[in-house]
């Protein structure tokens, strides 16, 4: 009961993030015995990825190669890389764990995470590719006064990346403790060191290929696991569900929405954050600059949507498979929890995030268990690298090259700053990961998604769509969105009451997620302060729209793929 | 000599491209929003509807195919946009770029 209780208050927040599993991972995690298969497979993956980094390093000389792989990634490759960024260990272990714990509720998460992608396709992908070069700030600042917008975008990026990174690091540490039987600190340091190597030496080329390989491994592994589950039920979903209902303590309740969504307002606000947060994640937006043109950008989101949707359907099968095949096997239970009178679902050793991992062992034996464990860890490694690259680019390209050097930075200096930023970010991430070992990870990622939806997304969308936006309007509106999202999350029940321990009902905002309000505040702020802006700069901003609009629609003047 | 932004904006083909893409993009966005928030509102207001068995005596509820439908619709809508864009917009864009040189 209590592991579920612990999950539910933060569930809405957790829903904002790929690492939905995060909250459960913050509970006490028992260290497991050393898993030799998993370690062997993992070492194999690391060796392969370091080989790729070595190969990529020779192709990473210019800034374009470092930030955007020279624009030479194809639509399909980028689709896989985007899917890889999105299918974190969290969405794999987290969603299947949630399905394991409460059935249908897991599907609500999957659906919410997927529906942002069509919006990105219809409204953002093509103009973004046509206008941008390395970071989304290139687009957001296109016709505006550079420094203020770059500072805003860099703040939005760094805050989003920092919270997301902490969540991934803490997740990685706990996961490795579970999977490999290594101490938490080792795990965090290993992740930090490998990520620094990938990004500094291999830049976007290495980051992309590590992501692609991991995406293929994860898709293949999950497909195989779902296939093995279905063979046990004659490929009849009805038979699988019937058996799951029979063994699950909640019985038929797992086939309908449960405690996940408490009030209609929370449901809607959550829906807003899920849908639009995706369109404001800097490491995802950056991927659109790695392809040659708008057509490839469009194609890549189509592939990504397909892969991610397919993957979420697999996690649903995996979760139900785990109910039947894991919860009925005493070997996967924690005897101490059973002794305390927990039911078979809650007594799973190492929280319900282990459901998918244990299922791999149950259907595919020890070797497959090792494979899935290694893939889960590779996943965190790849996601963390993408995040760090996005953060480092904001520092070197937006802050150093544009704000500090006024756009006159030497390319080699810019790359050097970027690499230094990567090392610093890596070290900071390791330290924060150790410092925040006990923190509610869902809180961190909830914040990341809310800020992406409330700062990055409105500024980006309005800059591309609305002629009337001015520098002042964008900066005031963007910071209002960022600030209100921060305030809204901190004073929400999940953080104020569940995490900080204030009495129940004392939170200032009684909804799980502020995105509906903070995103609206950003849009209204941008609109209002742009309308009121009569400065000389505002005239230049508005006059710049025609040239920007033509380029966003046709790609005339867009940065092409650099030669290889 | 290359055409100015205003000249390109006045090109009837540009106007056609922008209007067509805007119509399709926002229509599909609206459809996606309706499908998704329709699902979310069902979750919020009518859980028991989603818990109705799809056939008498079955444990599979109506919520399962509805959820899968939302996932599949996201993919299908994206596919519709892509096929329309590949078929019409790229050619139109090519012509505009050509005429603007």
Biggest chain-to-chain interface with counts: A-B, 51 and 52 residues
For the biggest sheet of chain A, the summary is: none
Give the total of beta strands of chain A: 0
Please name the CATH architecture of chain A: Up-down Bundle
What does the average pLDDT of chain B come to?
90
Task: Sum up the structure in keywords.
heterodimer, A: 564 residues, mainly alpha, disordered N terminus, B: 101 residues, 80% helix
Summarize the structure.
The complex is a heterodimer of chains A (about 575) and B (about 100). By secondary structure, chain A is mainly alpha-helical.
Task: Provide a descriptive summary of the structure in words.
The complex is a heterodimer of chains A (564) and B (101). Chain A has one domain: Sodium/glucose cotransporter. With 564 residues, chain A is mainly α. Chain A is 73% helix and 0% strand. The longest helix of chain A has 50 residues, at 355-404. In chain A, α4 (36-57) runs parallel beside α18, α7 packs antiparallel against α8 (105-114) and α14 packs across α20. Chain B has 101 residues and is mostly helical. Chain B has one domain. In chain B, 80% of the residues lie in helices and 0% in strands. Chain B has 4 helices and no strands. The longest helix of chain B has 37 residues, at 63-99. Chain B is elongated. The N and C termini of chain B lie close together (6 Å). The model of chain B has no long low-confidence stretch (mean pLDDT 90). At the A-B interface, α8, α9, α13, α14 and α16 of A face α1, α2, α3 and α4 of B.
Secondary-structure map:
The complex is a heterodimer of chains A (564) and B (101).
Chain A: H1 2-7, H2 11-14, H3 22-25, H4 36-57, H5 63-68, H6 75-86, H7 89-102, H8 105-114, H9 116-131, H10 136-140, H11 146-179, H12 184-231, H13 237-247, H14 264-277, H15 282-285, H16 294-325, H17 335-339, H18 355-404, H19 411-435, H20 441-465, H21 471-490, H22 493-499, H23 515-531, H24 536-543, H25 545-554
Helix pairs in contact in A: 4-12, 4-18, 6-12, 6-16, 7-8, 7-16, 7-18, 8-16, 9-16, 9-25, 11-12, 11-18, 11-19, 11-20, 11-21, 12-16, 12-18, 12-19, 13-16, 14-20, 14-23, 16-18, 18-19, 20-21, 20-23, 21-23
Chain B: H1 5-10, H2 12-45, H3 47-50, H4 63-99
Helix pairs in contact in B: 2-4
